[in-house]
Amino acid sequence: MPTQNGELPIFNLYINGQWRPPVAEQYRATYDPATGEALAYIAQADIEDTRLAIQAARSAFDDGYWPSLPPGERSRLLHELVDAIEARQGEIADAEMRDGGCTWRKANLMDIPVGLIHFRHMAKLANFEPLEPVPQIAFPSLSYNYVRREPIGVCGQVIPWNFPFLMAIWKIAPALAAGNTVILKPATFTPLSALKLVEIIHDTGLLPPGVLNLVTGPGQVVGPELCTNPQVDKIAFTGSTEVGREIMQQASSTIKKVTLELGGKSPNIILEDADLDIAVDGSLWAVFMHNGQACESGTRLFVPSSIYDPFMDRLLDRATRLKVGLPSDGATDLGPVISAGQLASVERYIELGLEEGATPLMLGVRPSDPELAHGNFITPTIFADVDNRMRIAQEEIFGPVLCVIRYDSVEEAIRMANDTIYGLAAGVWSTDVERAISVANRLRAGTIWINDYHLISAEAPFGGYKQSGIGRELGTR
Question: CB within 8 A of 154, min separation 6: which ones?
Fold first, then answer.
C-alpha cells in the first residue's frame, strides 16, 4: 500500500508478501506525460533488493505449496483474483491513463477489459491435466509412458511502458497458472498500474508469500541481476530489440529459458480490391492507436498504384479529423507520447524523413493549444514517396509517423513487406478473403490480420519472426 509524502503517494517494493522500502531508501518520481505533473514516488531497487525478491520467489517455489496445488484449486484461486481485479478496474484504468498517457477510451474500453479476458483465459488453462499418456512401447520391453508438465520455477519478468497493465497480465497470469513464482519488473516510466494490480492481488490474501514479487527501479540494475542470477529459471521480456539482444546475452551465462517479444516495423498491405472506407479507417487505426507506440503498429502502408490517388485522398481526409488532446477527454484520439525524450526522438525521425526525400502529406508538430503546452504532444505525420530502404521505413520510430509506399504488383509488395529485420505482425486488406489469405501466407510475420488490426486473441499465440523475438505468449501451450 502506498504511503504519503506531502501530497504524493510513495510506492515501495513488494517482496515475500510485504511492502517494504528499498535497502538504499532511494525513490524516483513518475510523471503524467500529458501535464508534466508528478504523480507518485516510486522505490528504486538495487541489486540487494532484487536478490531478496529472487530469494523469496525461490523459497516459495522450492518449499511452498503453490507449485504442487491441484490444478483445479489453482484455477479457482486465479479466477477469484480476476474477480477482485475486475471489481477495482476503474482504479487501474485511471493509473494507466495518467501514468502512460493513453486515452480514456483505450484504457477503459480496450486495455483493462482485454487484460481481464486474457487473465480469465489463463485461469481456465490452469485447470489442466499435467500427465499426458504416450503410446506404449512394446520393444525391447512393454512399458507405460507419459509426459508430465511441470512449472519452470522462478520467472523474472520485464515489461514495457506502452501497455503496462496488459503486459503485466501477459507475464503474471500464465506463470502463476502453471505453478511458477514471479519477480515482475515494471517499466520506469509506467509503474503505477502494475503496482495497483499487485496491491489488489495482495489485498485478496489468495497468494502465498513470495509467489508474486514486484521490484521497481532502473532496468540497467534490476534487469542484469534477473538475467544472470542462477536462482532465476526463466526470463520473459517485452521491449526493444536492442535491449532484447542484451538480455539474451546475459541470460546465456546460466542457460536460462528466454521469451522475447521485441520490436517491429509491420507492413500493412492494401490490395486493389479492398473496401476503401474500411481499409482507410483500419490503416489509421493500425498506425495511430496509442500514437504508434505499439510494437506491432502498421507503420509501413503499401498502396497499389491503381488506387493510390483515391485511397490517399480518403486517408488524408480522415487523418485531418483525428483529435490530439488530453487523455481524459473522451473525444481524444491521440494523447501524448510517453516522455520528452521519446518526443525528441520522433521529431528527429521526422527530420530524417525530410532529409531522405520523403514527401510530408501531414507534418507532425507540437500543438499550439495552451492546454497541451506542458505535455509530450505531437500531431500525426504521414510521409508519401517513401522508399522501403529509407531509415524511416526500416527503423522502429515508436511514434505517430506513417510511411506510405506505392507498389505496382503484389509480388513487389510482398518482397518489400518482408524486406526488414523484423517480423512481428502485418495486415492485408481485400474483399477477396482467399486472395488475402494467399498473400498473408507469404508474409514472414507472427500475427497477420485480414481486414482488421491490433486484434489479439487470448486463444492464439502471439510473437514474432526474425529479430522481433523468440517464443510465444498467449495461446494454449
Answer: 54, 57, 58, 61, 180, 181, 182, 183, 231, 232, 233, 234
Grid cell in block for residue 15:
517482496
- Dihedral pair phi/psi, residue 232, rounded to 5°: -95, 130
Q: What is the pLDDT of residue 143?
A: 85
Say what angle helices 71-87 and 164-177 make with each other, to 10 degrees. 160
**Catalytic residue ranges:** 261, 295
- DSSP class of residue 216? -
Give the list of residues 6+ apart from residue 446 with CB closer than 8 angstroms, or none: 423, 424, 425, 461, 462, 463, 464, 465, 468, 472
Rounded CA gap, 23 and 259, in Å?
30
pLDDT digits (tens, 9 = 90+) for 66-85: 999 999 999 999 999 999 99
Contact 360, 382 (CB under 8 A): yes
Average pLDDT, the chain: 96
Q: What does the DSSP assignment read for 30-59?
A: EE-TTT--EEEEEE---HHHHHHHHHHHHH
Q: Is 353 helix (H, G, I), strand (E, B) or coil?
A: helix
Q: State the pTM of this model.
A: 0.93
Whether pLDDT at 239 is above 90: yes
Task: Kindly tell me the burial class for residue 400, based on how many C-beta atoms sit within 10 Å of its own C-beta (0-12, 13-18, 19 or more).
Answer: buried
Rounded to a whole number of angstroms, the distance between the first and last alpha carbons of the chain is: 35
Q: Measure Cα distances from 79 to 126, 206, 340 in Å.
A: 10, 11, 39
Computed on alpha carbons and rounded to an integer, the radius of gyration of the chain in Å comes to 23
Query: Are 412 and 303 spatial neighbours (Cβ–Cβ below 8 Å)?
Result: no
Walk me through the domains of the chain, giving residue ranges and CATH numbers. Answer: 3-261 (3.40.605.10), 267-458 (3.40.309.10)
User: Taking CA 396 as the corner, what is the angle to CA 305 and CA 257, rounded to the nearest 5 degrees?
Assistant: 125
Check if the beta carbon of residue 162 is closer than 8 Å to that of residue 111: no
The β-bridge partners of 11 are 42
Specify the pairing of strand 401-407 against strand 381-384.
Answer: parallel
Check residue 144 and give its pLDDT.
Answer: 85
